[in-house]
Amino acid sequence: MPSRTRRFRGQRTHGRGIKAGRGAGKQGGRGNAGLHKYKFKSMLIYAPDHFGRHGFKRPPEIVENPVTLNVGQLDGLVPFLKAAKALTESATGYVADLSRIGVDRLLGGGRTARPWKVFVAHATKHAQTKVEILKDAPAPA
After folding, report:
1. What pLDDT does 69 receive?
2. Which of 102, 101, 109 is CA-nearest to residue 131?
3. How many domains does the chain fold into?
4. Domain span at residue 40?
């Protein structure tokens, strides 16, 4: 037993004061303890947004989740488009109505093996450079 401990035997606090010898005593508790009491002013200065709710969550019925498709995925969808009667083949390439399979937006990632003419509600500028976007839906096949 070190001599310092030996010296404090018989004294209740071993020279540390009343709470300093206990766990997290001098710092006023651990973590966020006391933020609504004795650490309230420091909370107002350093973390004023700590309590309460912030922002809002949009109602799910008004949040849009468009179904997207990349240009590079068009060649792989040929069997599905044929089954949905949304594809016509010509000597120059394919003509597809993506709205029939539920695609809302065409993105510009990837490449196609053949030229495509596509009817879709929205298309990015990059997709428009890779495929031709039609204004009116093609006739059903």
Report:
1. 94
2. 109
3. 2
4. 28-56
Indicate whether 90 and 117 sit together in one domain. yes
Residues 75 and 113 in one domain: yes
Predicted structure pTM score = 0.58
Q: State the CB neighbour count (10 A cutoff) for residue 127.
A: 23
Q: Please count the residues of the chain.
A: 141
How many angstroms separate the Cα of 35 from the Cα of each of 22, 27, 28, 47? 20, 13, 10, 10
Question: What is the dihedral sign for C-alpha 78, 79, 80, 81?
Answer: positive
Question: Do the domain assignments include residue 63?
Answer: no
Is 77 found in the same domain as 127? yes
pLDDT in tens, 26-62: 888 899 999 999 999 999 999 999 999 999 999 999 9
As a whole number of angstroms, the distance between CA 132 and CA 130 comes to 7
Quick one: tokens of 113?
């093996």
